Structure prediction request, 315 residues.
Amino acid sequence: MLNLRQVEAFVAAAEAGSMTAAAERLHVSQSAVSLAVAGLERTLGTSLFVRHRGRGLTPTAAGRDLLLPARHLMADADALLSQADVIGRGLSGRLTVGCFGTGAPLVLPALMETFERRYPGMTLDFVEGATDVLEAALVDGRCEIALMYDVGLHVALEREPLYSTVPYALLAPEHPLASSASVTLAELAAHDFIALDVPPVHEHQLGLFAHAGVTPHIRYRTSSYELLRSLVARNLGVTLLISRPYGDVSYEGRPLVAVPLGGDVKTVDVILARPPGVRPTQRAQAFAAHCRELLPELSSYDKSLVPVAGSLRRS
Prediction:
């Protein structure tokens, strides 16, 4: 029969790349990890790793196929223990959440601080990055739940919309369009454009222009959100953004002007995403409820943000 200790050792060895590193992660001896993996291989009747003397491990085809189900099995076991712990002592343990890189500084610190204050037994960790990074983290079990933009998703994640945000133009105060009540995408396309070269933001920027039937003249590309804002503040070009920091100033302290887009502009949902077909743990459910409560309050300063109602749905 399958033994959870064996499955845990297999997952740790596959992720760490060696028996020694897996033993350090699990705080057991190397021989204990090796025996557990060997026992699982005997139970399954197949080799899960190719052992390279002095060079660690490489999962076999069977090992690669088993890794994701094994992660889900360990997550289910952890959820069972967590629920039992909640019944006995209250919510506790560690939860890893994901957050889109440009939005993380705006919402993640407040969510983490208030969540841990509400649940003193809980510790939050996080993964940040672009959409593909978060999708991979959700699917392979490195995080249980993630805050993302509902743009450019490639995986059929479970999604819950929290609020919508309207893209806006960002300009320097001296730019000729800065005093406008609103600007069209055609007007922006007539000026040098600075692209945020982070997927799927860049594709979303180009998609907005394409929908309007125009093509921007891209002068600069950068993957740095703050560098982009600083370049705009120096009047080196204009840009389109989704998230909006508190205070329209650049990293250098120079003023910036946010101008609404005119015409029919599609909003972008901020969503809670979960891996498909995986039952959320008590910890993930508590974090989701906390986001529903706190995020509309955090975003209320920006009138372009629109709360949305919706139950969990599949993309």
